[in-house]
Amino acid sequence: MLVPLLNASLCQCFVRRAASPSSLNDPLDGDIQAFLTEEDQLHTYDDLTKVNPVTPTTVLKCLQARYRLQVFYTHAGCTLVALNPFQPVPHLYSQDVMLEYHCAPQPQEFKPHVFIVAEEAYRNVRGQLHPVNQSLVVSGESGAGKTWTSRCLMKYYATVAASSSVDQSQDTVERIERRVLDSNPIMEAFGNACTLRNNNSSRFGKYIQLQLDSSQLLVGASVQTYLLEKTRVACQPVNERNFHIFYQMMNGATDLQRKEWKMAHGQRFAWLPASEKTLEEDGFQETLEAMGHLGISAGTQRQIFKILAGILQLGNVTFSTSLDESQPCSLDEESKDFLQGAAELLCVSAEELQTCLSVRTLQAGKHSLAKPCSQAESSTRRNCLAKVTYARLFEWLVTFINNSICADASVWTNFIGVLDVYGFECFGVNNLEQLCINYANEKLQQHFVAHYLRAQQEEYVSEGLEWSFVKYQDNQSCLDLMEGGPVGVFSLLNEESRLNRASDAQTLRVRLEKELSNNPSISWDRFSREPHFTVAHYAGGVSYQIQGMVEKNKDPVPPELISLLLKSDVPLLRHIFSGKDPKDQSTKELSKVTVVSKFKNSLESLMKILHSTTPHYTRCIKPNPDCQPMTFQEEQVTSQLRACGIVETIHISAAGFPIRIPFKDFLQRYGIIGKHSGSKSGGDSADHGLTGVKEACQEVKKLLRVVFQHTQRDLLIGLDQERHNALVHCGRTKVFLSQPMLHLLEDRRKTILSRCAFTIQCCWRRYRRRRHRSCQQSATLIQAAVRSWLVRRKLRRWDRAAAVIQNTWKKWKTLLKSLAEAELDDAKDLAEEDPPGLTPVVRERGSVQLSHIQEPVTVRGWPMGLALASAPSITVSMTATGLQKMMSVMASLNLPSRRGEYKVETNQCTRELASIRAQPKGSVKLHCQRSPLLYADRQPDLKSDVTGFNEILLEKTL
């Protein structure tokens, strides 16, 4: 439960507000000293709004104490402060940590982390009331860790927003996640470089939109880039490096690739300074794998690296001053070799390439005139060719990445934007690039000031809150200086660039001083040899060199160079330069498109996107200028805190109400508290709707009274009206909530929803149990009916089968009986009949009189055998013809051998013969023809039971 935490938060809130000074400008030396005496407790302040009093000193000491204990994230009201550790901290960004913050009911209760900002934006997309697009603005100086923070944010969303999918297969989800993440190595390889302040400094600005569908799953992304520092290709500041991709090629190429790219071992290139310095970003294989995952084929990759190798070869081409101005600049033998190598890699004619670099074509009406270039002009044209080629290649890569990872417009519904722009820069020599970079930082700072510092305080006053304004640094005057109209630095620079005349730095300086002398944000050093002007930025003053600024703003590209590249045999090179032919464009049209105008337009479109989204700010702080791990320099950090307005942000966040909700939305979300609190207030307001603002305000106050009553009963504290106002305030159209009050409302709402969910679960489970029992009973009845039907069907089949067997058996038994009766003579009929007369021979040979025998006598006569029942006396009369048959019959009689006990007589019809079927009186006719008795055993054994048909035909008598 959140009650203990909420109690502590409430108490801290009350103490802080009670102890807050009446004026922010009062002297606080004593309070500061008292606060700083407890140095062992400074690291425990995970939110700087708990610091009392809030001063640059107290904020700095808290950050320093946390940094010493390797705690790099700290909340500062609505902003997250991130200190760069300058060393790997893998356990802080593992996947388990991501899932821990993502699955937490209240991520704000965890330790400060960039994942809390990411999760808050992700949950806001799902929306408490209405889904709104989100933007994560990562700002800070160069080297403060913006690129790493942006990379962590993208990894977080790729993990939690694509961890599972309902409508898509797991392979599709992994492919989207991999492609979104693989865009980072490519963009950093082609757009980042090692500078004095940062080993992986972004030399372009990018705004990445992570596209989410209706289920808040990651389905794609798109990348928007701003102002690539293409001058770095041909001109690198002292002790700085070119873009990472060139060093990756040098360090990671195979021998075969080196031979193809004309990069021999030990080869030196003028545009690759500090090539011996090895960085973590020089991972060539990682870049190749990312290209493959994004769908860049091996053939296209080969063309890309041939173009890059050709650019490096151009850097080694140097021109010699020609003694005859009518002749173009000459090349030494070494430069000719490099020019030939560049032409072969770019697949153009070496002669035409040399001509385009050393001779320019002037248009005079319909006629053209070739004029040799000076040594400086030839070098400028060479540099221009390299810069425009690299810039077009970078633009093509961005377009290809977008085509690869961007989802269809019908698939995604909302997005989360991650903005990573170049940090504020101030070098020894600053030119147009630094002016544009710092202008972008000024716009982002103004967005923060307008959205939070100024807008919140003005809204407090308009809503009727008693508020004393907190002073903050407003940089609007600096923006008016640069982009203001009709006269500003950019407008004067564009006007000078569009004039068809040679640029003069001194003339431009005089005009700037004349037109902008009234603006306090610009100043001049009249004693400087080089013409320059100084702008007072929010992060400090920066001096800009005027020399060469107009030419860089024009960014002219000789049309003959474009025409030459369009003839290349490299398909990719022709593709990136295809479009409008520069010869078809008028000079007036080309002059309108300047570097400043393009950058300003793209930045304005970015600001429109930011204004239409809910912003989340992460301020990256650079602890020391030397990028040394665990080194904290107070002056360096203090200047950054002052520049980005952290202290003012903490003041407003601590004293104000960061959460503002309209009455209708408040009742719609928290009206459930009044419904289930036992009070009728707030119950029907959200259902029926409220037309009047006053009615809505009254309902909100009733609801808040109910909440405070429950809070007093649960926490056993008394909340007076003053403390109520410290937690929540009802304005004219909105409810202003502090963070503890929001936690209280969310906790109460969550408790009620849990209770309702439990009730719904009970009802649902009861319904499911009843339904299951009903289904079980129905299934039992159906099973019983089916089983009884099956048994009845089986019994009927058995009855029918038994009837058939019985009928058949009865018929068979009747048939056998009739046949057996036909074999036996009826004794009565035989008695009535006169015995047939016997011939003397038969009388003498065939009649045998047997004496009385007590035990059964077995008569064996082939082919059948009979068992004779016991009788006092048995007379066997046998009639046979012929001696052989007579002997066979006699031999078949197995009679006990008892001398003098047998009497042989003639046929006696009065003697009884015991048969197994009947005991007919008379004689038994023994036939040797077919008889049903043949199916009996031929020779039954006296010692064994009679089985088979003997048992059926002959009833058991033995």
Automatic annotation (TrEMBL):
Record domain Myosin motor: where: 43-750
One record GO biological process: actin filament organization
UniProt xrefs under SMART domains: MYSc (SM00242)
Stored PROSITE patterns: IQ, MYOSIN_MOTOR
Residues at which ATP binds: G140, E141, S142, G143, A144, G145, K146, T147
Region (Actin-binding), start-end ranges: 603-625
Keywords, ordered alphabetically: Actin-binding, ATP-binding, Motor protein, Myosin, Nucleotide-binding
Nucleotide-binding as UniProt keyword: yes
Cross-referenced InterPro entries: Kinesin_motor_dom_sf, Myosin_head_motor_dom-like, P-loop_NTPase
GO-annotated molecular function: actin filament binding; ATP binding; microfilament motor activity
GO CC term, one of those recorded: membrane
Family membership: Belongs to the TRAFAC class myosin-kinesin ATPase superfamily. Myosin family.
Protein name: Myosin motor domain-containing protein
Organism of provenance: Takifugu bimaculatus
Highest classification ranks of the organism: Eukaryota, Metazoa, Chordata, Craniata, Vertebrata
